[in-house]
Amino acid sequence: MRALVLLGCLLASLLLSGQAEEAEDANEEAPLRDRSHIEKTLMLNEDKPSDDYSAVLQRLRKIYHSSIKPLEQSYKYNELRQHEITDGEITSKPMVLFLGPWSVGKSTMINYLLGLENTRYQLYTGAEPTTSEFTVLMHGPKLKTIEGIVMAADSARSFSPLEKFGQNFLEKLIGIEVPHKLLERVTFVDTPGIIENRKQQERGYPFNDVCQWFIDRADLIFVVFDPTKLDVGLELEMLFRQLKGRESQIRIILNKADNLATQMLMRVYGALFWSLAPLINVTEPPRVYVSSFWPQAYKPDTHRELFLQEEISLLEDLNQVIENRLENKIAFIRQHAIRVRIHALLVDRYLQTYRDKMTFFSDGELVFKDIVEDPDKFYIFKTILAKTNVSKFDLPNREAYKDFFGINPISSFKLLSQQCSYMGGCFLEKIERAITQELPGLLGSLGLGKNPGALNCDKTGCSETPKNRYRKH
């Protein structure tokens, strides 16, 4: 049944696209759409200088380096999550990521939002797969193209970790600096279209891993479809698996909607949800915007007012992400700190259990293998939940620690109680202070947080702080 629905929609869309090709010349001469709602919604015409967040970002960077990174490095958290935070990432602008099948209008949409059509800045577009690179659009004083190897070598940018994906990928990474006011506040990332043809999937670099890197750092993710590309193949299915846990950042876009009559648009809208339903296992479906994101005026006898309101709603969504830049950044660093703390507590528990079970005649390798293979037998995770107020939903996968300790011997770690110094204090105390006081206090300085001092361990999940044996209590 599902296949028949999709086939019917595809045939109808092909007929409509044929009509669109016949009217192509007319479209070229058609009047351009009014852009005043874009400037108004995104406040591009305002002359006020952009807010200076450098002091807050500097404070955030200091908290990360002094209170979070020592514990992160000591317990090798990056080898568990593969997510290294750089200074460039902390100070970076919000990132908007465009994903979806080939030739659905991702590059055209970026050109439209930035007003780059018919200028030397515009991204190349066409009916065939045109974007083979990951294209990062950033602000700059003049038009400038930056090669991927240069972007990865510049530690001041947030893209230096991409070097780990190899030189083949860096040849497919390109940065474009454009003197545009919107890009002063946000960064756009255009991606290669999803191609289900098996031969064309052989890209020469780990495409899914690269997508995951951008997904993990994106503040807003636009997944774009058009009426002719609603089928879900292996590559698109893998992409939605990677998006799990990021549902609040996902926005679905049904583009080129003015090519369809009302009845056909309703059918295509239903077919889109039918295709995506098995891939998005959440109670509330993501927001879907239905419109045509390109500069030409809407086709006659279509729902122009509806499409315009949908477009304005999307722009308001984008503007909200820009306005909440600092709040989202602080919340991200705090979430990262909570995960680092949980990881350190677990490694400490593994190490303590290992030492308790070791005797003079024990084989250390066999003892620890028994602990790693069945941590529940030794109450590793249950002890963490009982004594430290950690939510069970925040605990990492048990299987991940088999690989983690396979690379990092348990003997290479110290107990948390030994991670203290007279001048620097205890690592665990410092990260808990950052979670419960410093980061909420930074939010409070923006005029949004409540009294930071009111936050306590009952709400944020901290306790069992080891005493600093180098200090008098």
From TrEMBL:
Alphabetical keyword list: Glycoprotein, Membrane, Sarcoplasmic reticulum, Signal
Topological category with respect to the lipid bilayer: Peripheral membrane protein
One MF annotation (Gene Ontology) recorded for this entry: GTP binding
GO cellular component: sarcoplasmic reticulum lumen; sarcoplasmic reticulum membrane
Signal peptide: 1-20
Subcellular location(s) of the protein: Sarcoplasmic reticulum lumen; Sarcoplasmic reticulum membrane
One Pfam family this sequence matches: Dynamin_N
Annotated PANTHER family: SARCALUMENIN, TRANSMEMBRANE GTPASE FZO
Name of the protein: Sarcalumenin
